[in-house]
Predict the structure.
Amino acid sequence: MSDNNSVTKVAAFYQFAALPDYRELREPLRAFCARLALKGSVLLAQEGINGTVAGTPEAIGAFAHELAHGDMFGGRLDNLELKFSTAAAMPFGRLKVRLKKEIVTLGDAAADPTKQVGTYVDAAEWNALIAAPDTLLLDTRNAFEVAMGTFEGAVDPGIKSFGQFKDFAAAQLDPAKHRRIAMFCTGGIRCEKASAHLLARGFAEVYHLKGGILKYLEQVPETQSRWRGECFVFDERVALGHGLRELGLRELGLREPDKGHGRDE
């Protein structure tokens, strides 16, 4: 019988939540992760938490329980967006817990997802929304991610980093013309910040894919999918396909993206 704990489990998570004590949380969280032998990256900011970590299924379970129900965050992460997948081998080299000004960098103080965000759309309802002729479908990810895969008919903003999204929106989007916008990203976090930005600029209807592309690939059968290509992930697995199947560089026929692109999610 195989040992379940020999499997490497990956947890991708985020939540926008008021964490004024985020600096004091860094060391307890790092120590807790280290005791569980987790590796990966966690970002802490006053606006919330964002990260991806990997370890044994038991360790990942203990980590997820602590975030949502433990004393460390005191119930403030009660709406954690959390997705699990597996990896053939540990996809991270070490553990990093870092302090940031934003858990995903946009640089717009008016974009506050703790106050307002767009309308969440579950994966099961996404196809109907983006098929509507009056919906502008917008990919909020970086250009190299879009090149690997995207939804049929999606607009590529052509950005190198998420911080450039507000410039794209200012130049190309008009609240009077674009009445309904549906956005997506890898796990959902960039869309929350982008939707808050657009709402603050007066856009009327802004929707985003709850759980992001990863949730869609996990839940929507390939035969019904409007996704084309693969979904880039910021770890050594490189990309995931339908059913969150792990893909590598050789299978994709690609070279590794420039490390300078950084991790947006």
About this structure: Residues 249-263 have pLDDT under 50 and may be disordered. Residues 14 and 94 are 20 Å apart (CA to CA).
